[in-house]
Amino acid sequence: MPQIPPRSELDTHDVHNQPEARHDIDYWGGDIALREHAALAGGDAAVLADYGALMWQADMRVTGCQTNRHVPELIQFDTGGRRLDEVEFHPSYHR
User: Is the pTM of this model over 0.85?
Assistant: First the structure.
């Protein structure tokens, strides 16, 4: 489905209360409480900062939405009726 860009100017009124599109976010660097609790729990700050940077990239958030939209599918039988019991995952699960 094509992505339709948001519109601020409509025929009936102007929309002013919409936030800007979110870009890459550094939640690790901006959340002191998160860093302090991770340190108390023995977390490796460098590893957590790298992981947080990866997880909060704009394209990774889109991947997360796709993962939530496409639930795993249980394939119980093949076309010949033989038992498979396999689970198919959307490619976003592997990212």
Answer: no
